[in-house]
Design brief:
Length: 334
C-alpha cells in the first residue's frame, strides 16, 4: 500500500502556538529511508489544506523500520525546520483465492465454488473463515453482475447466480476477489459458456396405399446435464408433401408432444406417388430448433374380384354372373 503522511507546521509566539496555514509546498523536502534498504524514497503529492500538510510515498516498500524526514527551507521570515518520524513496514499475510464453475445450460443457475486460504506458510495453508469474497460477472469484458459469498470454516465458499439470455453464445468470465486490509489482495478468474440445450427430433412414416390411413410418429428429446430427456407439450409442425408425377401438393399440420415427448397423427392419402413428411421444432430460449424428414410411397389399391356363375342350357337360357370387387385395408376387407 502507498503511505500517506500528515504534518502540522507551527511556531511559538510567546506562550502561543501558531500553526502555518496553506504554506508553500515547494518549500518542503520529504524523504524516507528504510533500515537495510538503500533506496531513497521521495514523497509526492505534497499539499496543504488549511494547517495540515499531506504527502504520499508510493509502494512498494521493503519490510523494516522507515525513517521519514521533513525539511522546510528557510525563508525571510522562518528559519529552516526539520522533523523526523518512524514507521514500521510489515509484511501482510498472503491470501490466495480460487474460483471454479462449469458450463451451464440457460435457465439453470451458475454454481460457483472456490476457496480462500492464508498461504503465508505454503506447506500449512490456513482457511480464512468468515471472510466475504466478491464475485464479478462479465460478458465480453463488460461487468453485468456482482455478488458476495461467505467463506466457511473449511475455507470454501459457494454461491449461485442466474443465467441471462445475454450470456448465450458469449464469453462469460467470473472473477473472484478478496480485498482486506489484513491480507494481501488476491484474485482468480474462470471462463464458462452458457448453453442452449440441444434437441433431437424424429419422424417416421410408412409406405401405404391410397385411401388407407397411415400414422406419422416421432419424438422430441433434449440433452442436458442429466442426459437425454423427452420434452412434453412442445409444438411440432408437420409439412406433408405429396408428389404424383411431379405434381406436388402440400399440407401443414401442427401437433403437441405428449408427456413422454412423443407425437402421432393419422392421415389418409388421397393421391398416389411419394409422400414426404418434414417435422420442425422452432425451439426457444431453453432449447435449440430441430428438423427431420422421412419419406414413404403411396401405391394404388390392388382390388380382388370374386366371380360367381351357374351352369345353364347352352341354347335356351342367358347366362347371368355375379361378382364381388374388394380390397384389403389393414385387416379389413372393403
Amino acid at each position: 500500500d502507498d503511505l500517506t503522511i500528515t504534518a502540522l507546521v507551527s511556531y511559538e509566539q510567546g506562550d502561543e502556538i501558531i500553526y502555518i496555514n496553506n504554506d508553500d509546498p515547494t518549500l518542503y523536502t520529504i524523504t524516507m529511508t528504510i533500515e537495510g534498504d538503500n533506496t531513497a524514497y521521495q514523497a509526492t503529492n505534497i499539499a496543504f489544506e488549511d494547517d495540515t500538510l499531506t504527502a504520499t510515498f508510493n509502494a512498494p516498500f521493503t519490510e523494516g523500520i522507515g525513517t521519514i524526514t521533513i525539511t522546510r527551507a528557510a525563508t525571510d521570515i522562518y528559519e529552516e525546520a526539520t522533523a523526523t518520524a518512524e514507521v514500521e513496514f510489515i509484511t501482510k499475510p498472503e491470501a490466495e483465492i480460487t474460483i471454479e464453475a462449469e458450463d451451464t445450460y440457460y435457465a439453470d443457475d451458475i454454481t460457483i465454488t472456490g476457496t480462500l486460504f492464508d498461504v503465508t506458510d505454503e506447506e500449512n495453508p490456513i482457511p480464512i473463515e468468515d471472510a466475504t469474497v466478491t464475485i464479478e460477472v462479465y460478458i465480453n469484458d463488460e461487468l453485468i453482475n456482482t455478488v458476495e459469498a461467505e467463506v466457511d470454516e473449511n475455507g470454501t465458499y459457494t454461491v449461485s447466480i442466474p443465467t441471462t439470455i445475454d450470456m448465450i453464445d458469449e464469453e462469460v468470465t467470473l472473477v473472484a476477489k478478496y480485498d482486506d486490509e489484513d491480507y494481501t489482495y488476491t484474485t482468480d478468474d474462470t471462463t464458462i459458456n452458457v448453453l442452449v440445450k440441444e434437441t433431437t427430433l424424429t419422424v417416421i412414416i410408412d409406405s401405404t396405399t391410397i385411401l388407407e390411413p397411415v400414422t406419422i410418429t416421432g419424438a422430441l428429446l433434449a440433452e442436458d446435464a442429466t442426459g437425454e430427456n423427452y420434452l412434453p407439450d412442445q409444438i411440432i409442425t408437420l409439412t406433408i408433401t405429396y408428389n404424383n408425377n411431379n405434381e406436388e401438393t402440400t399440407q401443414t399440420i401442427k401437433t403437441l408432444t405428449d408427456e413422454n415427448g412423443e407425437y402421432q397423427i393419422t392421415i389418409t392419402p388421397k393421391t398416389t406417388g411419394t409422400i414426404q413428411v418434414t417435422a420442425t421444432y422452432a425451439g426457444n430460449n431453453d432449447y435449440t430448433s430441430a428438423e427431420e424428414s422421412d419419406e414413404g410411397t403411396i401405391t394404388k389399391v390392388e382390388p380382388f374380384i370374386e366371380l360367381e356363375s351357374e351352369d345353364t342350357w347352352y341354347t335356351e337360357d342367358d347366362l347371368t354372373i355375379t361378382a364381388l370387387v374388394s380390397y384389403e385395408q389393414g385387416d379389413e376387407i372393403i
